[in-house]
């Protein structure tokens, strides 16, 4: 489904990736582990077409995406990928359900229909009754589940998650991971989840470790 | 602590520096405007003093006999050249000790004249038969600045012999030249009403400075959160609240001092341009736009002091504890009671329609209270209106941009409105003033344009202006060349009527008579009733008439007079093609025919003089609108930036997920353009309503549509402020770059 071959990327003088190679199969849930600053986020950004590598290539569904222009990559992210980040991704002006409906609205779905479709996710993610809350009125775990719903609502091929539980306590984090994994499996979504917690990685089918800008180990669990 | 404050202010990172620069720029703008106003008030006074000598002979003090002074004969008249007034003083010294006005070395002798620099230039470039021939003799010098109200003033001091002037009934013997402010002299007619100009300059300054204050306030809030976090961090390491206040105060004061200095620079740089604004009807000498020591001291001390106080007040809203920042109050949605003063103001003004108060004081009170209620009401009602419109937008929105923008405006309508409230004040005041002035001028102005009111010149020989025993010119005295001047279409003579006829505005019969045969020669001046040979007319063949009646529609009343040709001449009316050259040639020829008479003029020219100041004021109102809109645009731009920084993270995440930057741009655009346009529309509507109610109540005039100039100003100002907002949009791309979404 996604493949990175010998990807290199530097931020000015700082090399973040020094030849990372990685392949993710369709429907697979892959955990990317590694110490802080090792290049995990940068790798994820390259896989998702947010950053363009200095060298190497990135393919999605057999097609190179590192050679696409910014507009085409944006469209790809919008239509094929979903994202969950560590925190602060909800638009504060919108209610929880509107935040979830946002990708649908952006794709041109009518407001009523989009909100109805988004509401269905609240039940699935144990968020019932929170539809009308603003982001400031949600707990960290609730906000992450809303973000997860937003990442999945447009049924993406791949869900990219960068430290989705990084700012949650372990119990809440597990709840979020549980839901992430079960929803992804239900929909057959491929997942790339970046984390530095082994506990989170345990939910994945497979894990890789990034060290000094290289994908060094692959351990089967 | 102050040293640390200074260091933080100067080296507090990019955001602190940006805030410093923006606040300083806002303060500079406000200071510049304030200084311009003060200088304007001073310049008006100076200009008025330079008008003083033109009242010589009018002020009683100048005509009382004085020992040791040889009186001078003095005759002042108002002539015109191509739409500009030309002051003409004919003088004759009766001895060597005659009074001499400032600006000329001595009174000119017969056959000599002094011209103002502007007139001097005209005399050299304009053909003599259009201007120079009006003044007998030769130019012996240029009038000095001390006698010039404005560098553009057209003035001439013409020397005559005492014998000639002595026979002129309006010439006077003067023993002194008036040098005191004509505003202080009861009978003075030439000069400015200082109080009026001070009041209107102050209104204009307020209308401009209010938006600037708002701008300063908004700018101070720029990245306030970051600053407050910094203060909280300092509290954590042991700074006392007092010390924090000192820090904040030092920072604002540094910005204000820099801004004030810059403001003086702005003022001096803009001074030559400001002098060109003919606010009083005439331009100023740049050197007249001076600041007194008191002005300078008050501004230089007052503004930094005000900024320090403002900083202290701003910090009172937040409590900075070592654990962070807590807002004292979360915004509550505005309530509908905020509409009450606005409605009350409209009701108050509407009440007086048809019930005009008897006294001037009563009228002033009635309209002022209504206007102030409406103005305050607009500022109060603004947040409520903003909230209603925003909710409507959010509820109806199908697209995410409108939804997000509508929600944000509805969440904190106070903040959204604050950025444009300065604009409300400026637009309301100026629209009401423009509306009232335009309608007033339009009601007063009789049809002009290419009608005879603008194209015909009248030279009248009023019997009471004639010297003792003298006779007016006769038909034979009319210069032969007059009808031969290119562009002259007809030369008509009007004879004296019997003066027992009641002559007032309602009475169409005038002080003159004309034969119907003559009248028929020149279309456009009305007609005779059937069968009439002679009709009574006004001296200019136009007379006081109702607005809406064109001169051509007038039917003059028949007269039974039969001895028309033997009667004395009352006036000569020359109809031209309206070209400047033709009119000025005719004026020059008529002046040689009756050298001491009232200089000829058209009906339109008389009118232009009487509405000149109003028209000038309106032009100034346009300038205020043009200036205040971009200032409001700046406030908006600053709040755009603040709103962007607030939502840096969610916006960058949205961009990562593939949302087009276009969508984020429309969010920002809607958040600013909607309040700007809604508020502008409401303020303009309220201003027009106020003007209309005032006109109905006081004058029973309808509101006339505002001129294209006004709409051009409003449109141009709106485009400029939208442009300023648009200029902040590239920031969006930078602020929401992928690195912002990183977890750190
Ligand atoms: N926008 C950036 N500018 C400069 N350096 C960056 C940027 N993003 C990441 N880096 C650097 O690249 C390296 C890898 O960063 P990142 O991929 O965020 O690591 P991780 O997610 O594993 O903690 C780090 O040394 C980091 O400092
Ligand atoms: Mg990371």
From TrEMBL, chain A:
Keyword ATP-binding: yes
Keywords of the record: ATP-binding, Nucleotide-binding, Transport
Domain ABC transporter, first and last residues per copy: 2-221
Domain of life (superkingdom): Bacteria
GO molecular function terms listed in the Swiss-Prot or TrEMBL record: ATP binding
Entry-linked Pfam families: ABC_tran (PF00005)
Gene3D superfamilies: P-loop containing nucleotide triphosphate hydrolases
The protein's name in its UniProt record: ABC transporter ATP-binding protein
Organism: Asanoa iriomotensis
Automatic annotation (TrEMBL), chain B:
Entry keywords, A to Z: Cell membrane, Membrane, Transmembrane, Transmembrane helix
Bilayer topology annotation: Multi-pass membrane protein
InterPro entries: ABC3_permease_C
Chief location bin: membrane
Transmembrane intervals: 20-41, 196-223, 244-269, 289-315, 336-353, 365-386, 415-437, 623-645, 666-690, 710-732
UniProt subcellular location: Cell membrane
Keyword Transmembrane helix: yes
Highest taxon in the source lineage: Bacteria
One Pfam family per UniProt: FtsX
Domain (ABC3 transporter permease C-terminal) ranges: 203-317, 624-734
Protein name: ABC3 transporter permease C-terminal domain-containing protein
């Amino acid at each position: 489904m996604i493949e990175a071959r010998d990807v290199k990327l530097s931020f000015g003088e700082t090399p973040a990736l020094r030849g990372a190679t990685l392949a993710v199969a369709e429907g697979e849930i892959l955990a990317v582990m590694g110490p802080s600053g090792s290049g995990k986020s940068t790798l994820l950004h390259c896989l998702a077409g947010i950053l363009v590598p200095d060298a190497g290539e990135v393919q999605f569904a057999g097609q190179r995406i590192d050679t696409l222009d910014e507009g085409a990559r944006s469209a790809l992210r919008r239509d094929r990928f979903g994202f969950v980040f560590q925190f602060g991704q909800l638009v504060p002006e919108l209610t929880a359900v509107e935040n979830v409906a946002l990708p649908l609205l952006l794709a041109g779905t009518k407001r009523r229909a989009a909100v109805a479709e988004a509401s269905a996710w609240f039940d699935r993610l144990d968020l019932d009754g929170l539809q009308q809350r603003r982001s400031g009125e949600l707990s960290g775990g609730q906000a992450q589940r809303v973000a997860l719903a937003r990442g999945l609502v447009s049924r993406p091929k791949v869900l990219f998650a960068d430290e989705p539980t990084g700012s949650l306590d372990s119990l809440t984090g597990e709840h979020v991971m549980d839901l992430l994994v079960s929803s992804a499996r239900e929909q057959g979504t491929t997942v790339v989840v970046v984390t530095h917690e082994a506990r989170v990685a345990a939910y994945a089918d497979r894990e890789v470790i990034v060290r000094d800008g290289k994908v060094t180990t692959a351990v089967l669990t | 602590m102050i040293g640390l404050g200074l260091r933080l202010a100067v080296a507090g990172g990019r955001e602190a520096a940006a805030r410093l620069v923006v606040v300083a720029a806002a303060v500079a703008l406000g200071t510049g405007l304030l200084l311009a106003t003060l200088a304007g008030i001073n310049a008006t006074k100076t200009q008025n003093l330079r008008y003083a000598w033109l009242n010589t002979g009018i002020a009683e003090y100048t005509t009382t006999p004085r020992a040791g002074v040889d009186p001078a004969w003095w005759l002042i008249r108002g002539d015109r050249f191509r739409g500009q007034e030309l002051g003409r003083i004919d003088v004759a010294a009766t001895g060597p000790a005659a009074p001499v006005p400032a600006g000329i070395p001595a009174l000119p002798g017969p056959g000599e004249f002094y011209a103002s620099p502007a007139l001097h230039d005209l005399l050299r470039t304009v053909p003599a038969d259009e201007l120079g021939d009006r003044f007998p003799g030769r130019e012996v010098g240029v009038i000095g600045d001390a006698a010039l109200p404005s560098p553009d003033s057209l003035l001439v001091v013409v020397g005559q012999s005492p014998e000639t002037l002595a026979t002129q009934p309006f010439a006077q013997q003067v023993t002194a030249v008036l040098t005191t402010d004509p505003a202080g002299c009861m009978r003075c007619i030439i000069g400015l009403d200082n109080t009026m100009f001070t009041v209107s300059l102050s209104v204009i300054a307020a209308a401009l400075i209010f938006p600037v204050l708002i701008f300063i306030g908004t700018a101070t809030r720029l990245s306030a959160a970051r600053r407050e976090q910094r203060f909280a961090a300092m509290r954590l390491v042991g700074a006392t609240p007092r010390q924090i206040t000192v820090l904040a105060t030092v920072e604002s004061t540094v910005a204000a001092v820099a801004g004030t200095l810059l403001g003086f620079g702005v003022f001096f740089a803009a001074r030559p341009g400001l002098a060109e604004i003919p606010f009083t009807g005439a331009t100023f000498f740049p050197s007249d736009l001076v600041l007194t020591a008191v002005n300078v001291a008050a501004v230089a001390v007052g503004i930094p002091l005000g900024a320090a106080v403002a900083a202290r007040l701003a910090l009172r809203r937040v409590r900075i504890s070592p654990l962070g920042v807590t807002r004292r109050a979360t915004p509550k949605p505005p309530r509908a009671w905020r509409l009450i003063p606005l409605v009350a103001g409209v009701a108050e003004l509407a009440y007086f329609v048809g019930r005009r108060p008897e006294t001037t004081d009563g009228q002033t009170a009635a309209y002022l209270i209504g206007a102030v209620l409406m103005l305050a009401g607009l500022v109060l009602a603004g947040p409520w209106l903003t909230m209603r419109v925003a909710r409507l937008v959010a509820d109806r929105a199908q697209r995410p941009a409108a939804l997000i923008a509508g929600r944000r405006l509805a969440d904190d309508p106070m903040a959204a409105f604050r950025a444009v409230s300065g604009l409300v004040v400026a637009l309301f005041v100026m629209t009401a003033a423009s509306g009232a002035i335009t309608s007033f001028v339009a009601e007063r102005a009789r049809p002009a344009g290419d009608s005879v009111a603008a194209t015909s010149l009248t030279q009248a020989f009023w019997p009471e202006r004639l010297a003792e025993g003298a006779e007016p010119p006769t038909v034979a005295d009319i210069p032969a060349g007059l009808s031969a001047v290119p562009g002259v279409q007809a030369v008509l003579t009007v004879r004296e009527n019997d003066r027992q006829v009641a002559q007032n505005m309602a009475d169409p019969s005038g002080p003159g008579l004309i034969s119907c045969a003559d009248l028929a020669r020149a279309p456009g001046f009305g007609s005779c009733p059937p069968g009439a040979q002679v009709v009574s007319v006004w001296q200019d063949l136009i007379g006081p008439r109702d607005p809406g009646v064109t001169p051509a529609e007038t039917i003059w009343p028949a007269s039974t007079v039969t001895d028309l040709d033997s009667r004395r001449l009352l006036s000569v009316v020359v109809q031209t093609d309206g070209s400047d050259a033709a009119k000025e040639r005719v004026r020059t020829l008529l002046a040689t025919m009756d050298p001491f008479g009232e200089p000829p003029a058209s009906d339109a020219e008389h009118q232009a003089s009487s509405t000149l100041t109003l028209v000038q004021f309106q032009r100034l109102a346009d300038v205020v609108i043009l200036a205040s809109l971009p200032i409001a645009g700046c406030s908006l731009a600053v709040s755009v930036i603040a709103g962007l920084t607030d939502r840096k993270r969610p916006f960058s995440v949205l961009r990562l997920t593939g949302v087009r930057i276009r969508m984020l741009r429309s969010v920002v655009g809607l958040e600013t353009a909607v309040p700007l346009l809604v508020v502008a529309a409401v303020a303009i509507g309220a201003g027009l309503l106020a003007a209309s109610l005032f006109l109905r109540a006081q004058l029973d005039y309808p509101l006339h549509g505002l001129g294209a100039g006004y709409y051009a100003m409003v449109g141009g100002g709106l485009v400029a402020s939208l442009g300023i907002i648009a200029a902040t949009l590239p920031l969006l791309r930078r602020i929401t770059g992928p690195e912002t979404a990183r977890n750190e």
